[in-house]
């Protein structure tokens, strides 16, 4: 199976989820962006906090045109029962779908399985997933991959920050510097000459080095 590198097409699949079945992940995404994120198992402490946090900030994903979908290696009935706990513990309502992947077929396709923690297995000894994140654009291309160990919860504000950076870079010929946050200075893309940049960016161009030029949008 080829590696899922940045720019590769996200593999399509059919799935059962907590909000219903779909025959095509690509059709589920439609013309939107998407975030697919995996969880080792239902009724686990870190996952319960993560799904609650995503439910809490779901409007932030929605206003960016991003569909959210989780994945956990359990049956659909287990997911439904677990969602009740997530809602109660976090005082939220989980409305986004969670994929049921007890056979790990989707997890295998997306190379999510844990090979680091030998205790992170089910009763049959099959590895659970690590905490994978995929940001996928409307063209179904993978734009970001992250993998956290099962023991470490994710920072979802960072996921939102990357989405903002990617969407801004798709709209303008810019990249974003270290620790960038929305509204702060961006970097003129290397493919744009300084003369072109001064025409493109009315707020001015600060030339630090010929290859490092800042502007604001």
From TrEMBL:
Annotated keywords: Antioxidant, Oxidoreductase, Peroxidase, Redox-active center
A single BP term in Gene Ontology: cell redox homeostasis
GO cellular component, one term: cytosol
CDD domains: PRX_1cys (cd03016)
Record-annotated Thioredoxin domain positions: 4-168
Pfam family, one: 1-cysPrx_C
Record-stated family: Belongs to the peroxiredoxin family. Prx6 subfamily.
Protein name, per record: Thioredoxin domain-containing protein
Organism of provenance: Mixia osmundae (strain CBS 9802 / IAM 14324 / JCM 22182 / KY 12970)
Gene name for this UniProt entry: Mo03452
């Amino acid at each position: 199976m080829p590696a899922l590198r940045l720019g590769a097409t996200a593999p399509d699949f059919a799935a059962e989820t907590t909000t219903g079945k779909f025959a095509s992940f690509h059709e589920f995404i439609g013309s939107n962006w998407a975030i697919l994120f995996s969880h080792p198992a239902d009724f686990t402490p870190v996952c319960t906090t993560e799904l609650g946090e995503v439910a809490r900030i779901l409007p932030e994903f929605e206003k960016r045109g991003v569909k959210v979908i989780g994945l956990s290696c359990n049956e659909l009935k287990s997911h439904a029962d677990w969602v009740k706990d997530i809602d109660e513990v976090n005082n939220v309502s989980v409305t986004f779908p969670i994929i049921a992947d007890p056979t790990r077929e989707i997890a295998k396709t997306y190379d999510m399985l844990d090979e680091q923690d030998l205790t992170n297995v089910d009763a049959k000894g099959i590895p659970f997933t690590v905490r994978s994140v995929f940001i996928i654009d409307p063209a179904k291309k993978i734009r970001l991959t992250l993998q956290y160990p099962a023991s470490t919860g994710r920072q979802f504000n960072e996921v939102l920050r990357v989405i903002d950076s990617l969407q801004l870079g798709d709209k303008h010929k810019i990249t974003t510097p270290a620790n960038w946050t929305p509204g702060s200075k961006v970097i003129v893309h290397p493919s744009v000459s300084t003369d072109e940049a001064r025409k493109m960016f009315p707020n001015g161009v600060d030339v630090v080095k010929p290859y490092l030029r800042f502007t604001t949008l």
